[in-house]
Amino acid sequence: MTDTVVTEPSAVVAEITPARPSVPKRGFGSRVVSAAVSALPPLAVFAFLIGLWYALNAWVVRPKFLLPRPDQIISDGFMNDLTRQQIIDGVWQTSKVVVTGLVIAAAIGIAWAVAMSLGTWIQRSTYPYAVILQCIPILAIVPLIGVWFGYEFKARVVVCVMIALFPMVSNTLFGLQSVDRSQYELFQLQRAERWTVLTKLMFPAALPAIFVGLRTSAGLSVVGAIVGDFFFQRGTPGIGALLQTYARVLDYTQLFAAILVAALLGVAMFGLFGLLSKLVVGRWYEPVK
């Protein structure tokens, strides 16, 4: 008699499944070199822009004080003790508005998007109002915001929320509705409850889109906070109020210094949520390079 050899399924799978190639770990030196190579293009563009700035100041712009040189901005805007302290205080006040407005916009936007994803009638009934809110000119309702909320911190936060809300709503809703249909049907076959589907499938799958919304809203929240500073200047002034003050007295070196700090604040907020996105979803979500 011939003996029949019975092979375990796991062994068969092990035999036909190709071994995953091991990726060698890069050393510290290679990581430094890679980071340096990645930093070269933006540094080259930065050097070109600085050179162009000096050229415009020397040969194009007249009078020259309308476009001060970068070294003048550093010396008069950042090395001057009074101006530096004003800018630091203004950035601190604006940052509080930015963080408060972004947290509120994110909470409202995510909750609104979740509600719309769970009920088609909710989306049809309320999403047009999110679009309308995005299209309303802020300048047209500034007087109403001042009357309703005062002319201090709360009014600035309201402007910030209105500007930063729509990206959170639209991106979160897009992520929740982009779940793979086969996975969704699998949950339905298991008779999973709606809350389970939301927390175990839809929300994790929507995290990349949610962080896209957070990055976008983070930059817009800085814009909203500065716009609020322009119109609601009671209390401690923010960076927007300083921009108005410096422009009013034609102090362009300090004006450019404040503009630069405001831009850096927006970049910092954008970069913070970009880093959080890599830490939270980078383990299983890798974009195509």
UniProtKB/TrEMBL annotation:
<keyword id="KW-0813">Transport</keyword>
<keyword id="KW-0472">Membrane</keyword>
<dbReference type="GO" id="GO:0055085">
    <property type="term" value="P:transmembrane transport"/>
</dbReference>
<dbReference type="InterPro" id="IPR000515">
    <property type="entry name" value="MetI-like"/>
</dbReference>
<feature type="domain" description="ABC transmembrane type-1">
    <location>
        <begin position="91"/>
        <end position="277"/>
    </location>
</feature>
<feature type="transmembrane region" description="Helical">
    <location>
        <begin position="32"/>
        <end position="56"/>
    </location>
</feature>
<keyword id="KW-0812">Transmembrane</keyword>
<feature type="transmembrane region" description="Helical">
    <location>
        <begin position="255"/>
        <end position="276"/>
    </location>
</feature>
<feature type="transmembrane region" description="Helical">
    <location>
        <begin position="97"/>
        <end position="115"/>
    </location>
</feature>
<comment type="similarity">
    <text>Belongs to the binding-protein-dependent transport system permease family.</text>
</comment>
<dbReference type="InterPro" id="IPR035906">
    <property type="entry name" value="MetI-like_sf"/>
</dbReference>
<feature type="transmembrane region" description="Helical">
    <location>
        <begin position="127"/>
        <end position="149"/>
    </location>
</feature>
<dbReference type="GO" id="GO:0005886">
    <property type="term" value="C:plasma membrane"/>
</dbReference>
<dbReference type="Pfam" id="PF00528">
    <property type="entry name" value="BPD_transp_1"/>
</dbReference>
<protein>
    <submittedName>
        <fullName>ABC transporter permease</fullName>
    </submittedName>
</protein>
<keyword id="KW-1003">Cell membrane</keyword>
<keyword id="KW-1133">Transmembrane helix</keyword>
<feature type="transmembrane region" description="Helical">
    <location>
        <begin position="155"/>
        <end position="176"/>
    </location>
</feature>
